[in-house]
């Protein structure tokens, strides 16, 4: 009995390849509903269609409530994408040296439309596409590890997560990276399976796909660098155990290796060329370390978790739990996921799926040693910061928790036949209740955005109102890194501004503000404020704008320049 039960948990080799040569379409083959096998296109299509419907419902809700631009990072991502073409010095230099470039390049075709830049839709379209692709990908991945009904349940837990649905309507990078993480893991599983079954053509195609997806992940988030290295190690280990396969796919593997290495090397070269430091993203003025130093309390105390991996583990796993499910049920979900992880390792069920856990060690290290604090209201100091990072563990929690549930169902159904009939409907009901509960109490990621946007949005709205009163086409000197949202709200093209993105003209303007712009906006603590204090000649103060929780802004008119009308 035990041997029979274990045999059903292992993926079976599909019958489709054997029938394809007889003129039978693989999607027309009827499979055993209790079989663990790769999903067909017919199975995946309705899942993707459901994701399309969910994504547009989420967009409608977020857009109607003004949620698309709550995150300051979302506003900044859109600003970077916009300035690639809309600036005094357009080009790749406008990508900056800290945030990786792919998200901004994907927004580029949409953000040039002024209305979409202003309302945030320019960032929503790429994120929605990535959400749909990630839902389809996680279903295809789970079908290689589970029977259909539990694969559907795992996909539902992922797809119906309100935090993910909200992020999928914004310009944040999480939806894109989750999609790349899921599909990279899926392609790794398929490549390893093809190596073991000596299917050389499949191995070659998966190596090329993996190279493309790893390159995309490397240019999306820095966790992608670790993901790429881990995948390369897995593939290399599997090929090294099969000398014949290694020799036959060696040229393709060389291309795969070259592309995996090319991503990080090219980003280091980019930082060296434009910012004269290959590690500018780690130690430059806009790096995480510099931001933490600037925002550190006067007493000099670091965040809890600083140089303490145990506290970092607690903060990150607790954040992942609260991001994934409602109330305190996160502890049960995490326990089930750990049980599924142990089960996967013991039974050697698609071990490459362990790549989904890659965010866990990455963020433990980042919190402990990488100047990346995470604050959630459940833990001291009971505030909101970087809670969205826990979302990267959502695929692992969904997949491995339901692996454990599937194993429990098979064990209990032998003595309780009713269990097999009721467990999945009960699980789907609990998932639906979890979604409703999270929405009712506001999901953590959205709540953080609402809390932290309060003073920033009020300040930028007031500043935009003042900027809108300037004559059309006037040149404005302003530091854009902190409050580009004011220019966005006022619909002022970035090419009309003298800002830090155009290094030479900005440095010249700092030495003589009145000679290089019609109007000057100085915000307490920024380089323009320091320049105005040092060189006030020719400037007439128009107004002082102060709002709660934000530094004051002073607006000046230059007496030494004439308005410039844009064509």
Q: What this model shows, in words?
A:
The relative contact order is 0.10. It is globular, with a radius of gyration of 26 Å. Strand 1, helix 22 and strand 2 form a beta-alpha-beta unit. The chain has a 5-stranded mixed β-sheet. The model is unreliable at 1-28 (pLDDT under 50). By secondary structure, it is mostly helical. The protein has helices at 2-7, 16-20, 41-64, 72-83, 102-111, 114-119, 121-143, 148-159, 162-167, 174-196, 200-218, 223-240, 243-275, 280-283, 288-295, 309-324, 330-347, 359-369, 394-413, 417-440, 444-467, 480-489, 503-511, 513-516, 527-534; strands at residues 476-478, 497-498, 519-523, 539-545, 553-558. The protein is built from 25 helices and 5 strands. Among the domains are: 1-12 and 31-172, no CATH class; 451-558, no CATH class.
Helix coverage percent: 55-70%
Which runs of at least 5 residues are low in confidence (pLDDT < 50)? Answer: 1-28
* Helix-strand string: HHHHHHHHHHHHHHHHHHHHHEHEHHEHEE
- Structural class, by secondary structure, is mainly alpha
Spatially, the strands of the biggest sheet line up as: 2-1-3-5-4
Helix count? 25
Strand-residue proportion: under 5%
Measured between the Cα atoms of the first and last residue, the distance is: 80 Å
Question: Main sheet?
Answer: 5 strands, mixed
**Nearest-integer average pLDDT:** 91
Write down how many β-strands occur, each being a DSSP E stretch of 2 or more residues: 5
Assign an overall shape.
Answer: globular
**Rg, alpha carbons:** 26 Å
